Request: fold
Amino acid sequence: MTSVRYVICDLDGVVWNGDSFVVGSVEAITQLQREGASVWFVTNNSNKPPSHYEQRLGDAGVDHASQLLTSAQAAATLIESNERVLICAGPGVEWAVSEAGGVPIANTEDAVCERLDAVIVGLHIEFDYARLDRAARAVRGGARLIGTNSDTTFPTATGEAPGGGAILAAVEAATGQKALLAGKPHAPMAAAVAARIGPEFRPENAVMIGDRYSTDGRFAAELGCRFIAVSSGVAPDVEDVVVWNRVPCLADAVRFVTGER
Reply:
C-alpha cells in the first residue's frame, strides 16, 4: 500500500449510477479497507438522509458505511439552533436541519405565513413553480439563501439528470441573490469531513476519488489532498484541476493507490 491512509470517495458516478453499482466498486472498497485504508463516502446528493445511503452500501457488503457525509449535513452546519428553515429540498435536508437543532419548515402554502431565517435548496424531486415562488418570497423577505451544492446534474444509469444546482439556479435567478454553498468543493463540507475524521486526519495521507472535476477535484484542493478522476460518471467539466491519475473506474483507482498498477 502507498502512503494513502484516508480515501474520500464520491458516490454518484463512482460507486453507483442510479440504481446500479459500478462494476467492481464494492470489491474495490473492500480491498482498500482490508489493506488498512479508512474509506469515507462524501456525496453532494442531499435528497435522502445518510441512513438511506448507509443501508444501500451495507446491503451491498460495504463495511463501515456510516463513515459518510452528505451535502445536507454540510448545509446544516450553517444553521443556528432554533432557526426556522424553509426546506426547498428532499427529506435529507429536513433530517439534517432537525439534527442540527434547527426548525424545518415544509415548503407548503402555510409557509408564507411563517417567520423564516433561512432557505436551504437542494435536490428536490417534487420541485415546482409554487415551491419556487415560496422560496423566492422567503429570500426576498430576508431569509438567508443556502445551497446544498451547485451540481446542475448528477449521473444515473440512463444518463445525467437535473441536480440540486439546477433548482438553486432558479431560486437565485428569481431573487437576485447568490447562495452560500455548503457541499463539495466548499469550505463547510471540508470542515465537516475534517471534524468527522478527527484530529488525526492528514491531507498528505489522503486521496479524493471522484468523477466531477469542478466539485471532487476542487474539493481535493480545498482539503489539500490528491485527486484521482474516474470516467464512470459525468464527463470532465473543467481543466484547471491537478489530477494525480485518470482512470476508468473505482477499481482501477484502487489498483493505482495500492501500487498494483
The mean pLDDT is 94.
